Amino acid sequence: MKYKDLISQMTLEEKASLLSGDTFWTTKAIERLNIPAMCLSDGPHGLRKQAEHGDHLGLVQGIKATCFPTSATVANSWNSEVCEQIGRGIGREAAANQVNVVLGPGLNIKRNPLCGRNFEYISEDPYLSGKLAAGYIRGIQSEGVSACPKHFAANSQEHLRMTNDAIIDERTLRELYLTGFELAVREGQPKAIMSSYNKINGEYANENKKILRDILVDEWGFHGMVVTDWGGGNDFVAGIRSGSHLEMPATGGDSAQQLVAAIKEGRIDTSLVDERVSEFLEVLFDTRITGEISVDYSAHHNIAQKAAEESAVLLKNENILPLKANTKVAVIGAFANKPRYQGAGSSLVNCYQLDSVLDVIGEYNVQMVGYAQGYSHIGQSNVKKCEEAVNLAKNAEVALVYIGLDEINEVEGSERASMKLSENQIALLEALHQSSTPIVAILHCGSPVEMSWEKYCDGVLHGYLAGQAGARALLNILVGAVNPSGKLAESYPFSYEDVSTYHYYPGKEYTSEYREGLYVGYRYFLTTGKEVRYPFGFGLSYTEFQYSNIAVHDNGVTFTIKNTGSCAGSEIAQLYVGHPSSCVYRPKYELKGFDKVSLEPEQSKEVSIPFDNLTFRFFDIFSNQFQVEEGAYEIRIGASCADIRLSTQHRVHGVVANNIPELSEKYFTGEVQAVTDDEFRVLLGRKLPPSTWDRSRPLERNDSIAQMVYAKSWLARLVIRTLYIKKNNAIKKGTPDLNVLFLITMPFRAIGKMTNGALSMEMVDGILVIVNGHFFSGVKKLFKSWRKHRRREIL
Ligand code: BGC
């Protein structure tokens, strides 16, 4: 134990007080022992340090910081060096502001396109997610601060995110939902990791020893600290026992008291608490920032721009891009003036500088004939705005139309209502199309949308949420100063109904059943042969690439790529591996490597993608470990998952795999949209837990506020109805009310965990008595526990 001596000088109370927050963002300092406070701040695509009052929803503005493109955007670069550069930028700004731990990157698997936080996550594929997350982590930590990958693990939905129980079979958990974290931990070596709000197979992630110790520490070699998501702590003592180190934010000393009591009563060993304290101190002292640190914000702006350039994806180009010099362009769309460049919630950066298209288009060699808003930002139809745009477009050779999702659609705490773009934007595209001026749509949103409107466009450039410097980045691509090289890190289905989790997502009440098993995203579309609008890994360039000469050997695969077009460009080549005669069920093939190569016209390069310990493995539930199955594997090199350019076979020695007896045929064909209870039970290997709320029993600490809809107390029902009315009014106005979203979905215990010690858990129990219909005894209990709480000794 590294800090044995220091710990031996601490009282029990001091030790306990270090392991839960002192304020919203900081831990407790112990001055007599020269232990400073640790400061933690969001977030994944830019620093969100709050100067005064804290909140975890992005309501109070943070200090100014660089807003880099969000992770969903940078994912399209398929370039961990770009992630590393962004990480260095965020890390530098964090260090300059005395932040020890940056709460990011976020790398939950995009199980369904409607998850409200997909814009913050990397991919539907764990290999890509893990490789890029490791880049962010290395970058952040190179500046002396700690990264904190999140949300570990299986945090796939926002609806009831603090109470939902992810019911996942072991193999899917290991191969899809943990593999990205495994790569991030092994290759990024983060000093911290954030446990997720949800339960995994019945246990809160933060109390799940199997996840936090057996896998994270013993198997992957993590030696940092585990911090709860904000308000995600449940049983503090159980969390510490299972491998968690720090509960955030402050609970007013309540949690520390519980730990002291547990030690005194022998419910937890002092030696184990010492171990957690030592591991915590190691992160604290390793990330101590001394001296003045300067930040070159304009250099960071450039990094943000370069990242956006590498990450934009050209989806369609019918001989319209790049624009010729002096092209007369009409700039249309509210987002050209008021950019959509990040999502809402805890990741919201108060950006240092923000470029809009209208600010910077004058620097480009195009003639702008004018600007028209074209549609109302929040989705109402507006014929006049549409007509103005059509009239403007008539004077131009090309209409550049900036479209995308509005703010309400990409927000922490709720799912998107649909995969559609708003009707008024589609109507605008149709009207412009009829006026026959060619259209280039520039799309801004952080997750897939249905694109039936694509037929109206001659070109579509997807900028995702491109950060504060996105405007120039995309204009550079439009005029050909930069050749697009981004490729999609997620699939674009024709319609939402096509998605494998369409019937299962989100889990509505107690549980979220991952019935689709391994068939998420392209794994599903490829195996079932279902067509998509744009496949995973797809992206166009202004040049062409030819693939040849595949050769496979025991350590990897090599092949040649040649730039056969007339301009320099970069190509992302992807390695997919399949095992057609496998005994265990598998997707047709899966991503196991990639490389991005830059080539001048006519230049060729030999590319080599090494195999690693993930290339052929599957998780064998019988031996409870990863194994390599014997057999002939298909080795495919693709320009996307659906555009395989080269393929060969490779024989690998390994074990003979066992199949799960009676496993439904659906898991072999991939047709998993309608898996029955029985079929899922066989995959899961146990009985399904109840999925719907038990309305007959009284509400408890871990039930969600949303459950007050059936509470015994009319007052509680009135409160929840009022909250829903507020929520819906905010949606109508187009401004998400994050507080209300959070309140509705949080559990009762969070009233104690998120009020900075204003209310104790006993007081929460008093509230619950009221909610359960016993008004007077509830008030009495509340009052009694409030008096006790007021008189407590604060640790
Ligand atoms: C989010 C985390 C975030 C934390 C602190 C939570 O609500 O889930 O991602 O880091 O708040 O803001």
Shape: globular
- Given the structure, what is the number of helices? 24
Can you list the ligands bound to this structure?
A: beta-D-glucopyranose
The quaternary state of the protein chains shown equals single chain
Task: Name the helicity range.
Answer: 25-40%
SS elements, strand count? 28
**Strand-residue proportion:** 15-25%
Descriptive notes:
The chain has 795 residues and is an alpha/beta fold. Strands 12-18-17-16-13-15 form a six-stranded mixed sheet. A four-stranded mixed sheet has the order 9-8-6-19, with no helix packed on it. The longest helix is centred in the C-terminal third of the chain and has 20 residues, at 714-733. It is globular. The model has no long low-confidence stretch (mean pLDDT 95). It binds beta-D-glucopyranose.
Show the helix and strand layout:
Elements lengths: L3 H5 L3 H7 L1 E2 L18 E3 L21 E2 L5 H4 L5 H17 L4 E3 L22 H16 L4 E2 L17 E3 L2 H19 L3 E4 L3 E2 L2 E2 L4 H11 L5 E4 L7 H7 L4 E4 L3 H11 L5 H17 L10 H15 L1 E5 L9 E6 L1 H4 L12 E2 L5 H4 L5 E7 L10 H12 L3 E7 L18 H12 L4 E6 L14 E4 L7 H9 L32 E3 L8 H7 L16 E9 L2 E8 L5 E10 L11 E10 L4 E7 L6 E4 L4 E4 L2 E10 L2 E10 L13 H4 L7 H8 L29 H20 L4 H8 L3 H5 L7 H11 L3 H16 L5
Parallel strand pairs: 1-11, 2-4, 3-14, 4-5, 6-8, 6-19, 7-10, 13-15, 13-16, 16-17, 17-18
Antiparallel strand pairs: 8-9, 12-18, 20-21, 21-24, 22-23, 22-27, 25-26, 27-28
Helix pairs in contact: 2-9, 4-5, 4-11, 5-6, 11-16, 14-15, 20-21, 23-24
The structure holds beta-D-glucopyranose.
The site of beta-D-glucopyranose has 7 residues, from loops.
